[in-house]
Design a protein that fits this description.
Oligomer: single chain
Number of strands: 19
Number of helices: 13
Strand content: 15-25%
Bound molecules: S-adenosylmethionine, iron/sulfur cluster, FE3-S4 cluster
Radius of gyration: 23 Å
Strand order of the largest sheet: 2-1-3-4-5-6
Distance between the termini: 59 Å
Largest sheet: 6 strands, parallel
Length: 447
């Protein structure tokens, strides 16, 4: 038995890579671990179980995981009873699970995104039989409900409303590793939302790769707008966020619903990816620049204080200099609050990985830097426009320097630092912006 040398309670170290969908999965894995009697540690050297929940979206994400798994080998040699488990999107790729099987023999348990709810049974097999367990098959099974959740924060909660993706953007691995779209029943989502609010959370973020297609195929016609309205109607002092919204399915009805729901933050993350119609077509995004801009125009008409953020990919195969300039001009036209920017990373098995890609990496990096510089100028101008105004923020933490300063986030997803005692963490406060630095806004408590 591998359990002989476990401490009481046994300690688990769980590390999550990737998006909030993965964070939400890890909170369920931790919920199951806690039910099995585990406590948690931040120190992998003292853990009885180390689990990495992995991300496959870009090559860089995968390289980091392989590096960190390799670094566990000497730890495992010192602590032979330690269980090493790997799960998440990377493990859903046969190329990766084979590499783990052959080159990382000290890994005890490997499971993919479809097997999360079966974690206790798989762990039991590892512990009692002492053999390696690999469960990486794809089953587009019904959504598993009733899994215990161990939430990392007491005041911010992730709430998955759907899993998977049907869009097959040509660059993206997600549909291959997360399977087809499955929506949770509205009663299950609402039940969890009520539990979260009863637990005192001040912010709920609804999660899905494309929340706008929530409920597609439901017989009763429930959709994301109706779900938002129902969560908004739950009594309590909390705010609602959601991500990600796909421009192809973002309707005026959804924007009107946002505008009508007082608990929904005035923040829309609407990934554009590129400002060029030819590139958008090659990406299979399903909208044009014009349609995207008209959506943004409508959203700003119905919510004048709306904060917009987006994702941009630079250097998609065959992207010309002129096409990149179209992305730059779109970014300047929209004036986003912030951008999440990526250099195209070919993912095996996707259509874009097979496309001719004549532009050098150096050229792509130069475009990437130019995009960052453009956004920096926009963001700092926007920050200066906020000086003198008062915003409500959710106080999230002390600043890294721990110099008596706290950091809070506005509904529009902008951070403001202000002096205050640590007891304010987890509360909503009004803060007046007094100063705009290059990267950060500073302010003082206004109540
Ligand atoms: N479902 C969301 C959507 O459609 O906007 C995004 C999900 S994806 C996990 C997050 C972002 O990663 C994407 O919006 C895209 O900008 C970026 N991304 C995905 N695949 C990529 C790739 N192969 N190379 C570079 N960036 C990529
Ligand atoms: Fe990937 Fe596109 Fe699905 Fe988003 S919508 S997860 S980018 S395939
Ligand atoms: Fe990564 Fe999987 Fe999310 S590939 S970005 S963790 S859905």
């Amino acid at each position: 038995m591998l359990t002989e040398r476990f401490q009481a309670p046994p300690l688990a170290f769980v590390h999550t890579y990737g998006c909030q969908g993965n964070v939400a999965d890890s909170e369920r894995i931790k919920g199951m671990l806690r039910e099995m009697g585990y406590a948690f540690t931040e120190d992998r050297e003292e853990a009885d179980l180390v689990l990495f929940n992995t991300c496959a979206v870009r090559e860089h994400a995968e390289d980091r995981v392989f590096g960190n798994v390799g670094a566990l080998k000497p730890v495992k040699e010192r602590r032979r009873h330690m269980i090493v488990a790997l799960c998440g999107c990377m493990m859903q790729q046969p190329r990766v699970s084979e590499r783990i099987r052959k080159s990382y023999p000290f890994v005890n348990l490997v499971f993919g995104t479809f097997a999360v709810h079966r974690f206790p049974e798989m762990l039991y097999r590892v512990l009692t039989r002492g053999k390696r367990v690999f469960e990486t098959g794809e089953t587009d099974a019904a959504v598993a409900e009733g899994i215990p959740v161990y939430r990392d924060s007491s005041f911010k909660a992730w709430l998955p409303v759907m899993y998977g993706c049907n869009n097959f953007c040509t660059y993206c691995i997600v549909p291959y590793v997360r399977g087809r779209e499955r929506s949770r029943a509205p009663e299950a989502v609402l039940g969890e939302a009520r539990e979260i609010v009863a637990g005192g959370a001040k912010e709920i973020t609804l999660l899905g790769q494309n929340v706008n297609s929530y409920g597609r195929g439901f017989a009763d016609g429930a959709d994301f707008a109706s779900l938002l309205r129902q969560i908004n109607a739950i009594p309590g002092d909390f705010k609602i966020r959601f991500m990600t919204s796909h421009p192809k399915d973002c309707t005026k009805e959804l924007l009107d619903t946002m505008a009508a729901c007082e608990k929904v933050c005035r923040h829309l993350h609407l990934p554009v990816q590129s400002g060029s119609d030819r590139v958008l077509r090659a990406m299979n995004r399903g909208y044009t620049r014009e349609r995207y801009l008209s959506l943004i125009g409508y959203a700003r008409r119905v919510m004048p204080d709306l904060s917009l953020t987006t994702d941009v990919i630079v250097g998609f195969p065959g992207e010309t200099e002129d096409e990149f300039r179209e992305t730059l001009s779109l970014v300047k036209e929209v004036r986003y609050t912030s951008l999440f920017t990526f250099i195209f990373s070919p993912r095996e098995g996707t259509a874009a990985a097979k496309m001719a890609d004549p532009v050098s990496y150096a050229e792509k990096s130069a475009r990437f830097s130019e995009l960052l510089k453009t956004q920096e100028a926009i963001a700092s101008a926007r920050c200066r426009e906020m000086v003198g105004r008062t915003f409500e923020v959710l106080t999230e933490d002390e600043t890294k320097e721990k110099n008596g300063m706290l950091t809070g986030r506005t509904d529009g997803n902008v951070n403001i630092d202000f002096p205050g005692p640590a007891e304010l963490i987890g509360t909503r406060r009004r803060v007046k912006v007094t100063e705009a630095g290059n990267w950060v806004l500073r302010g003082t408590l206004a109540d």
